[in-house]
Amino acid sequence: MSDGDAVAAWVGRTYGGLADVLDAEPGTWDAATLCAGWQVRHVVAHVTMPARLSPEQFGAEMAAAGGDFGVLSDTVAARDAALPAAVLLDALRSPVLHAWQPPGGGATGALSHAVVHSLDVTAALGRSPVAPDEAVAAVLDAVTASEGAWFGVDLSGVRLEATDADWSRGSGETVRADRGALVALLAGRTLPDGRALPRR
Question: What is the model's pTM?
Fold first, then answer.
């Protein structure tokens, strides 16, 4: 299996695992997530856009949002969160979603999108990550290699230590958590226990 194939498989397993969790626990759709102001259904509506919107539909949504992807994301999430759970679950399991890569982001962007947003849900629910361990580790390495620039966190004077692997980066005040929680922190999220990394 090539690296690209491995990443695609990790993406598919991540979205499929999230679908399995939500399918087994239908009462979680309205739960809060690590994405401020978004319930589980909003996060799923957001990540499944590539499986539900054609390129033409996406272009029309972008035009309506004045070219601002943030506005588009909020609009689509708010609207499509009302879709039936079965529709959103099917979209999470869609091969179209599993093969999608963000423009300019490539395989790394696709994997980080899947892993971070899956953690938005599972970490908030107190569940273990659904992404494969290798996928979480790959995203953790990629985000720390950018020195936090991807998500605007400030890693100066911070040492990160994983509690579930022999992994650490940086020096200074120590932040210890499992690798999934570290990814969420590096993505600018606030953990359920209130921990967050400083912003740039």
Answer: 0.94
